[in-house]
Each structure stands twice: as structure tokens, then as C-alpha cells.
Amino acid sequence: MPRRGATPSAAPEPPTPLAVSRLTDVVGQMRLINGIFAALNSSIEIDDLHLMLLTILTSPRGLGFTRAYLFLPGGEPRRFEGRLGLGCESEEELSALEEEIRGEEQLLASMASRRSTGKTRRAELNDLRSQSWWITAFQRASASNALTAAILNRQLFKRGLHRAPRLLAEDGDIHTLHVQAKSPPTHLEPQTVRRLGREFLLAPLRTKRGVRAIVAADKSFRVAGITPDDTANFEWLCNQTSLALQNAELFADLRQAYSEIQEVDRMKSNFLSTISHELRTPLTSILGFAQLILSGRTGEVNPEITRLLEKVVGKSRDLQRMVNDLLEIAEIQAGGLVRLEQEPIGLEAILTRVIDRVAERRERESVQIEHRHPEGPLPPVLGDERALERVFYHLIDNAVKFSQDNGHVSVGYRKTAQRVEVTVRDDGIGIAPQNLERIFDHFYQVDSELNRHHSGIGLGLTITKKLLGQLNGDIEVKSRPGKGSLFRVSFPVVTAESS
What we know:
By secondary structure, the protein is of the alpha+beta class. It has helices spanning 18-40, 46-58, 91-113, 119-130, 132-142, 146-151, 190-196, 228-294, 303-333, 347-362, 385-401, 460-470, and strands spanning 67-73, 80-87, 177-180, 199-207, 210-218, 343-345, 368-371, 381-383, 408-415, 419-426, 474-480, 484-492. It contains 12 helices and 12 strands.
């Protein structure tokens, strides 16, 4: 447990009973520890943690060191350069800082004791009072100061060391070195030692990657100098900071990996968009010419050629749908549908158009699509007509595609006081429970074998899910293998506030 160091001499206080004195000291230590843990856990930025560490070391309500410095690795092995300094350069500056903090504490204590202040407010002010040393010291640390300028780029170790100093040992423990300027270790740079004071402590900050920094602290203007308690507190704090620093490095790695994934995803979307546009032009020509020949306008076509051309047209339309899906998902990922023109819309008319379109394009007369119209008028929902058509096209098209021959697809409605539901039910192959959570993933298909019977590239439900997120809609899936699937989509009805 950290213990505060000696404070500057002050007017003698009245004697206090020993038990009360010890209890007060324990409470003070607990508050200090809680404050330190809260500070170290308040940030996952490495630079902030460095600043937090030096603030804790040099604050009069912290560990009570007068100055602290941070050395970071340079470009060469065993090269550590000064990067940050914090604290007071003279006894007068230290006294002024303590007086400033005492003034803030007295002001906060006065505000907390007023009778007109509520209980919660008093607790907040008392908590702020206990942390006033944080506020003052951190503000001082945030600006450039003379100590940082004095230590900046100074070398901690001499050049050309043949053996690594004990501070850089890789055994995982934090080793504190108590240095006396009159007889410093031979591996330290003499000019840096003179700048750090007549006596100071050195300790590394170590993570799984090795030594990430070295911290120095002194008590130049304290009467007692550096005590064994100071050394224990310093080592304890460096251990706690090392743990926080390791977490910060892991977070930085995750953030970098996420950024790289986003960049790869952006490149993939751009590629999909570009290649899809390039495919669409020749594909349209192939389909157009095949239909032209099939119509007989270029001359008489015998039955065998007609049969082959019908296959060309059918496969071209399948490929056209795949290209359209690629363009659609690329458009959504690029933010092309972020700003939808949402207005009150009736779903029944949209479903009628979509069902006709699916029936025409699928050309599977063996699969019946039943449109169960509602008994009464449905309340409108807030949406974008084009986006809603795309949602229901993918759902109904999927239902037809995965139905068996002579299958049945039904589209129905249900309304509640606040929402309108549309259900798309089929009696097709169904989906296994372990696959239900993955059906909305990019390029995922339940029938994923190379020789699968169902065409497509697995983007329809991905597009549906993303569009519903834009439209404030929800989707629910129920399915059993061999028993078909039920997709239920719901939207909030238009109210006076939403319209």
C-alpha cells in the first residue's frame, strides 16, 4: 500500500489520539489508492498514461515526489531518451503549488458544507475536493514546461554498453534503482544524472514487449529525502502503470487491426463496384443480342437453336441478378443509401409489384406465390419506396429459389397498434439452427457446396438486413430443415410525430 512521503514543515498541530491518527492515515491511504486506480483506468491512450504517472508521482496529494521524468526508447538498442518532465524546480514553486491546492480544497469544502446544497451535490463536491490535486497538477502537466525542455532527448545510458543494465533485465520484475549523484552507476550518462538531482529513483515500465519506458523521480526539496516507503511506493506505482500500459498497447493493436480491416473492406467494396459496372455493360449486350436472335428478327431460328438461346438468356439473367446484387451491396457499404427519402408508404401496393416482378423473372410456374391481401386497409409506414421494394424482392425471390418443385410461397400481413408486419413463408429446404445467425453474413449460403443446386452469391439477405437498418425495420426468422422458412419483417406505423 503506498504511503505519502514527508510534507514541508508547517505549524505544529494539537496532539491527536494515536488510534484516531492511525485510522485517519488508513482512510487517507485508501483514498489515495482509489484515486490512483481510477486515474490509471481512466484512459487507454499511452501518452495519457505517461502523463498520469508523472502527475501521481509529483502531486502533493499523490506520492509527494518533487520532480519526475520519463525516458522512452530511441532508435538504437539500450538507447532511452528524455521525453517528459513534471514537477517543481524550486522550493518556492513547490510551496506555491501546495498553497494553490489548499485554496481550491478550502473553496470546495465551503461549497459542500452549505445547507442549501443537496445531499448528492455535497457528495460530488467532497469527491471533487479529494481529487483537487489531480486537477491542478494535471493542468500544469498538460502544458510545455521547463523540466520537459531540460530533459528532452537527453540520453539515460552511456553509448556502447557491452552488457544490459539491470533496469533492462527481461525477467518480468520491476527493479528500482536508488541513485546517488556523487557515486552514480557507471552505465548512466553523467550529464543526465546531474540534471536528475542529488538522489533519485529509477524504474522501468515493462509490458510483454519488453521495457517500454524508464521513470525517474526525486525529492529534492523534501527534508527527509527518499525513504524506504518512497521506494516501495514508487515500485508499486510502476508495476500498476505497467499493467495499464500493457492494456493500452493491446487496445492500440486492436484499433490498428480494425482500421486495417476497414481499409480492406473499403477496397473490397470499391473493387466490387468497379468490376460489377464493368461486367454489366457486356452482359447487357449479350442478353440483348440473344433476345434479338430468339425473337426471329434476324432470321428464322430452328427449334434446337431456340432451345440453346433460351438457356443463354436464362443464364444471362441469373448473372445479371448477381451483378446487381454486387452493385447493391457496394452502394450500401459506400453510404449510397444513408439518406433515404422516407415518407408514409402503403406496403400492400409495393408487395403486389414485387410479387409480379419475381414471378416474371423467376419463370418457375411450378412454384405458386400466394398474396394474402389484408382484410382491411393497412396503416402506412415510414419508408423509402425503392428500398422497400429491394427488401421484399430479396425475401420473396429467396423463398421461390429455395422452394421445391410444386412448392408454395405465401405473403401475408398482420397489424398491431404500433407496427405492421409482413410475413414471407415457404415450404422449401429450410435452414438448420446453427446456420440461422449466419444467413445475413456477406456471401454466406446454406447450400454452399460447389455443386449446389441453387444459384446466387449469398448477398440477398445481407442487403435486406442493411436496408432494414436504414428503414427502422426489424426482421425475424423461423425455420426447420425440410419444413421451410418464415421471415417476418415489421415496421412502426406512421404517427403524428413521425410524419
